[in-house]
UniProtKB/TrEMBL annotation:
In the C-terminal section; belongs to the helicase family. RecG subfamily. The gene is mfd. It is found in: Cytoplasm. Residues 814-968 form the Helicase C-terminal domain. It comes from Falseniella ignava. SUPFAM superfamilies: CarD-like (SSF141259), P-loop containing nucleoside triphosphate hydrolases (SSF52540), TRCF domain-like (SSF143517). Its main location: cytoplasm. It comes from the Bacteria. InterPro entries: CarD-like/TRCF_RID, CarD-like/TRCF_RID_sf, DEAD/DEAH_box_helicase_dom, Helicase_ATP-bd, Helicase_C-like, Mfd, P-loop_NTPase, RecG/Mfd. The keyword DNA repair applies. GO terms for molecular function: ATP binding; damaged DNA binding; DNA helicase activity; hydrolase activity. Residues 632-793 form the Helicase ATP-binding domain. This is Transcription-repair-coupling factor. Gene3D superfamilies: 2.40.10.170, 3.40.50.11180, P-loop containing nucleotide triphosphate hydrolases, Penicillin-binding protein 1b domain, Transcription-repair-coupling factor, D7 domain. Its EC number is 3.6.4.-.
């Protein structure tokens, strides 16, 4: 294994390890990656719990990245909000999960490194004993009281939900308890027999089915600050006394009424056993001594403090910033005055009874500290060479002559080889380091570090690729579990109040499931309300006829009138339009099948080398998509493929591999993008990716001079230019290709009608690959019926974080601190403000809040040239903050912008919010989105749902699925250039799609498969209870889901599988559920073999077949089927229809159903044999 030259630190590290306990030491001189290397070496020699406090955001992130690269043990972040306003807002769960992870790790005492900021030390935590009691070990066969288990889950932060899908949730259904701890890869299912724990299983949160049986599990808290309800309630007398005192001394009558009402609300919540929103603010009244993260460290732990003087300065700034928010909340009655909400970090760190190692550039803020030892290193940060080889050569040669150990740290083996080849071209004595570094050589090692440095006295120099080639650091891939990769709920799931579409009755409103009694038998029915309060009860066995009404986001449909003609007319109108679209789609499909294009050759060795040059590991979806595209290109049918993938999921790299394949076969490639800014970005990406290959790349857009454009056009005509990137300028008549083989279109829906017509012509001649992050249903329709093929990239790259999303009242303190934090790490900020009239004033407000920020404005009323100029300047880092309208919603890729504010987020649609949030979090950096609404504003229910939905969908992987749901909700847009969203709104997306599919199938001659099987309904006249009782499944949404699964039973396997799933998820099922599932299988077989009626007549069961079933079930087949049951049977034929009478004297319902299953299955199997004959 290649290693760094750390001998320079060995003597000091040995001294530190040999010291007495609680020694305080100081190291000056070292900075950045040199500090990380020193700490990693200390940890290797002396592994135990380490806590590092770094007050600067940028340095904290870089230190974390470096240590992750240098050590194999856990390196964990304890993230804490600088701003109290943010800390108490509705935050996404990831940061809480990270803090829980740290507290659980420290509770074990295992070696590892924890990093935090000043706010992490200031944060008030639960007493250590309270936290440790929060781990509950459950063992198979153990006895646990149900009420105590539920009390534990509630106290330790778990939220009760009907269905457990995300970490921090639990659910109780009968004897089954589902729990999803943050530190488990999958949720846990506990199955009790009375109070004995009968089984423990992990289960899949998407399918809700069990995976593995385990013997024991430890449930850890799902909240970072545990404040037991009983402890909160014990504070009621003291709180009441304080509150009464404040109310009494408030002179303003209006103010007094406000805070009095708020205080009463707080006391009521506590008395009713509800947890307070501001509970942790009152921790100091319960935990008087005050617990911080330092108290969670074992006595032998190592504390490392970066820049104590800076910590003192940061703490003073935070105190000022938070004071305004505290005063505001106190005046609103949300908080009590004079409550210590945070610890003092500076004093706690100075006086911590731990081995403490300080790193500092200067000894500022350290007066009065007695150091056991002080070690000073002479240190120089590394200058950038900006790829100037003459400068690199002279510096490297100088260091080697001086006897330095020279090491170049690069991000991958591929980069190591590339650097080695480059240095050899200049006759520099480079080696790719295999183990120890060699003197007189330039040692190249694959190790990603943030900064290079020189230690002149120790004769050691480390250079990174960032300094050599100005190449951004590529962080170590994190393959850790994506516990929150979102499992999207089906958009067809029904909630009470949702609009539904019934094919016969039209659009109604779903009001729930009702258990009804008919002739003494219980069954469930779906209640649907129509105009004038008319309603129907649809038997649950027909639930598959219902569809959720999905159309434009703003559309509220009118309820149809039961029995009126309006719905028939609407359907007829839509049908005629569907027929036209079906004709056009079929014509397109036929044309595509007949066209013949160029068949590209199979992959060449050069193709493999080009792909190996990609420095990141590909995701499985990327690899599959690449394979699908190559297969299309190698066939002689013109490719027309849609590549769908969320922002930053690697669509461009997939496309570039197709580009390389095309140019290697001598063909030209056109890369068409909707905006000039995007053209510029793609052009630079291609130039960089193709740097080592002899292909000319051209750019056609308004940013390119007329002369350069003409040179590119000439080159395309002669074939001198292989690849061209451009806007719709590429589609102009004067652009003629020598031999165009591949057209790549980015976000096609953003081109105009005229351009689309030109694209239609090109489609039939060349291979076409369309890239999109948000497919509009028009493109999905085309994929659905085979006009266009579809590839999906649904998995994020391994080193991407979810966007941290906060929903909160607009707060200037938060805006100021978040912009400063982003600027401190060298990043940029979007501030979304959707009112052009006052956007200048908003920009000035931000400028006043953060005077050092460079603020720019962009909106749709600027000229195109002005807009593009501002955006390009922002991309190039000229500005820190862009105050903009929703013009940034799509198509702008600014990886350095990782903080987003959205003003008046409650007024925006879900899809817009999702698109906007997609502007940040495109790299390995943690990104933040703040969704603001007006202070004191009462949000509408719809706004609240929308904001909660976007917050919940912070999880990685939610992107494509949420976009699909959004687009379905938003409307299917515009198919083949014809505006038809009005038609979709009138019948709903799903029915529209169904009508279109049926029309296509019919016109293609595939609509008459069931002509020889006339039976589609079964007349069932047998009294029994067949429904799902509410005490078995209480949640209506889950009940609907199970009814849908019951309707889908189409085999013995599906029948058994559903029974297993019911037992797995809900426990042993009662008789009515057993009857329901049995009947579903009987009905499936019965319809397949031509049974039209099953009716009970006293002690007999009469089964009637149609003519078709009678013909098929003749001779020995009927006897073979009857041999499967032990009932006496009589046969007769009436009107060419077989009637079979079974004796069911003294038979219970379950025995009758069992006989029917055996008989119908046996008969069905004889049909299969007949087919084979």
């Amino acid at each position: 294994m290649p290693r760094l030259y750390t001998e320079v630190f060995e003597e000091v590290i040995a001294q530190l390890i040999d010291e007495r306990s609680n020694a305080v030491d100081l190291i000056t001189g070292l900075d950045d990656s040199a500090r990380a290397i020193f700490i990693a070496q200390l940890f290797h020699k002396n592994p135990k719990p380490y806590l590092i406090v770094e007050p600067r955001s940028k340095q904290l992130n870089e230190l974390y990245e470096d240590l992750t690269e240098l050590i194999d043990e856990p390196v964990l972040l304890f993230p804490a909000e600088d701003s109290l306003a943010v800390e108490y807002s509705i935050a996404s769960q990831e940061r809480i999960a990270q803090r829980i992870d740290v507290l659980n790790h420290l509770a074990t005492g295992r070696p590892g490194i924890i990093l935090t900021n000043v706010a992490g030390i200031q944060m008030r935590l639960s007493p250590v004993d309270t936290w440790k009691k929060g781990s509950l070990k459950l063992q198979l066969g153990g006895e646990y009281a149900f009420n105590q288990l539920e009390a534990y889950l509630s106290c330790y932060g778990y939220q009760r939900e009907p269905l457990v899908e995300l970490p921090g949730q639990y659910s109780i259904r009968g004897s089954i308890v589902d729990i999803y701890p943050f530190d488990q890869a999958n949720p846990i299912r506990l199955d009790f027999f009375d109070e004995e724990l009968d089984s423990i299983r992990t289960f899949d949160p998407l399918e809700q089915t069990s995976i593995d049986n385990i013997d024991q599990v430890t449930i850890t808290p799902a909240i970072d600050i545990v404040f037991p309800i009983e402890a909160q309630q014990a504070l009621i007398p003291e709180l009441r006394q304080r509150m009464d005192h404040i109310v009494k001394h408030t002179s303003n009558e209006e103010q007094r009424a406000l805070i009095s009402a708020r205080y009463q609300e707080t006391l009521d919540q506590l008395e009713q056993g509800e947890s307070l929103k501001f509970a942790s603010a009152y921790l100091s009244l319960w935990d008087r001594t005050g617990t911080s993260l330092l108290d969670y460290l074992s006595s032998d732990a190592q504390l490392i403090v970066m820049e104590l003087g800076r910590i003192q300065q940061v703490e003073f700034q935070l105190l000022e910033e938070n004071q305004f928010w505290i005063e505001q909340e106190v005046s609103r009655g949300q908080l009590l005055p004079n409550i210590e909400m945070k610890h003092e970090a500076y004093h706690r760190l100075r006086e911590a009874p731990l081995n403490t190692l300080h790193f500092a550039s200067l000894q500022r803020g350290m007066s009065g500290i007695t150091f056991h030892s002080i070690h000073n290193y002479q240190y120089r940060g590394m200058n950038s060479f900006f790829h100037q080889m003459s400068l690199i050569e002279s510096e490297l040669t100088h260091w080697l002559r001086q006897g330095f150990i020279v090491q170049i740290a690069v991000s991958s083996k591929h980069e190591a080889q590339r650097t080695y080849d480059l240095l050899h071209e200049y006759d520099l004595p480079a080696i790719i380091q295999a183990d120890d570094p060699q003197s007189e050589k330039i040692n190249i090692l694959p190790l990603s570090l943030s900064k290079g440095f020189e230690l002149p006295l120790d004769k050691w120099v480390v250079i990174t690729e960032q300094e050599l080639f100005n190449q951004q650091r590529r962080p170590k891939v994190r393959s850790g579990k994506q516990s929150n990769a979102e499992r999207l709920k089906d958009y067809n799931e029904l909630d009470i109040g949702d609009y539904v579409v019934h094919p016969i009755h039209g659009i109604g409103r779903y009001t729930g499931i009702e258990t009804i009694e008919i002739n003494g038998n219980h069954t469930d029915a779906v209640a649907i309300e129509y105009r004038d309060q008319a309603r129907i009860l649809l038997p649950v066995e027909n639930i598959s006829q219902l569809q959720k009404y999905v159309a434009s986001e703003s559309t509220t449909p009118k309820l149809n009138k039961l029995g009126g003609t309006e719905w028939k007319k609407t359907k007829a109108r839509v049908q005629s339009q569907v027929e036209d679209i079906a004709d056009e789609l079929i014509q397109l499909y036929a044309q595509r099948e007949q066209e013949r294009g160029f068949a590209f050759a199979q992959d060449t060795p050069e193709q493999y080398k080009f792909e190996d040059d990609f420095p990141y590991p590909e995701t499985e979806d990327q690899l599959r998509s690449i394979q699908e595209i190559k297969q299309d290109m190698e066939s002689d049918r013109p490719m027309d493929r849609l590549l769908v993938g969320d922002v930053g999921y690697g669509k461009t790299e997939v496309a570039l591999r197709a580009v390389f394949k095309a140019v290697m076969d001598g063909k030209q490639v056109a890369f068409l993008v909707p905006t000039t800014v995007l053209a510029q970005q793609h052009y630079h990406t291609i130039i960089e990716r193709f740097a080592d290959w002899p292909f000319e790349v051209g750019l056609l857009s308004r940013f390119v001079s007329k002369a350069k454009q003409q040179t590119t056009i000439d080159g395309l005509k002669t074939g001198a230019i292989s690849i061209v990137v451009g806007t719709h300028r590429i589609l102009s008549k004067d652009v003629v290709f020598n031999d165009l083989g591949l057209l790549i279109i980015d976000e096609e829906q953003r081109f105009g009608v005229k351009h689309k017509e030109r694209l239609k012509q090109l489609r039939s001649q060349v291979d076409v690959l369309t890239l999109t992050a948000t497919p509009i249903p028009r493109t999905l329709h085309m994929s659905m019926i085979g006009v266009r093929d579809l590839s999906l990239i649904e998995t994020p790259p391994n080193n991407r974080y979810p966007v941290q999303t906060y929903v909160m009242e607009r707060n200037n303190g938060v805006i100021k601190s978040a912009i400063e934090r982003e600027m401190a790490r060298g990043g940029q900020v979007f501030y979304l403000y959707n009112r052009v009239a006052s956007i200048d004033r908003k920009a000035q407000e931000i400028q006043d809040l953060v005077p050092e920020a460079r603020v720019a404005i962009s909106h749709g009323q600027m000229s195109e040239a002005q807009l593009e100029s501002v955006l390009l300047d922002f991309i190039e880092g000229v500005y820190d903050v862009l105050v903009t309208t929703t013009i940034i919603e799509t198509g702008i890729d600014i990886p350095n912008a990782n903080t987003l504010f959205v003003d008046d987020a409650d007024r925006m649609g879900l899809s817009t919010l999702y698109q906007l949030r997609g502007r940040v979090g495109r790299t390995h950096r943690l990104a933040y989105a703040y969704l603001f609404y007006e202070p004191f504003k009462q949000l509408s229910e719809i706004s609240e749902k929308r904001l909660n939905a976007i917050r919940e969908f912070t999880e990685l992987g939610s992107g494509f699925k949420l976009a699909m749901r959004d687009l379905s909700i938003r409307g299917a847009g515009n198919l083949l250039g014809q505006q038809q969203s009005g038609f979709i709104d009138s019948v709903g997306y799903e029915l529209y799609t169904q009508m279109l599919q049926q029309a296509i199938k019919r016109k293609q001659g595939g609509g008459s498969q069931l002509v020889d099987r006339p039976t589609s309904t079964l007349d069932w006249q047998f009294e029994m209870d067949a429904y799902i009782p509410s005490d078995y499944i209480s949640d209506e949404r889950q009940k609907v889901g199970i009814y849908k699964l019951v309707q889908r039973i189409d085999s013995q396997e599906a029948y058994v599988q559903l029974q297993d799933e019911l037992i797995d998820r809900y426990g042993e099922f009662p008789d009515p559920v057993s009857n329901l599932v049995d009947f579903a299988l009987i009905k499936y077989y019965a319809l397949e073999i031509g049974i039209t009626q099953i009716r009970r007549k006293r002690q007999e069961l009469i089964i009637t077949f149609n003519e078709w079933g009678t013909q098929h079930l003749q001779g020995e087949r009927i006897f073979k089927a009857l041999s499967a049951i032990d009932n006496k049977a009589y046969m007769g034929v009436k009107n060419n229809q077989l009637e079979l009478t079974l004796n069911i004297y003294n038979k219970a319902v379950d025995q009758v159903l069992n006989s029917l299953i055996r008989f119908t299955r046996a008969a069905y199997e004889t049909f299969d044999q007949k087919e084979e004959e």
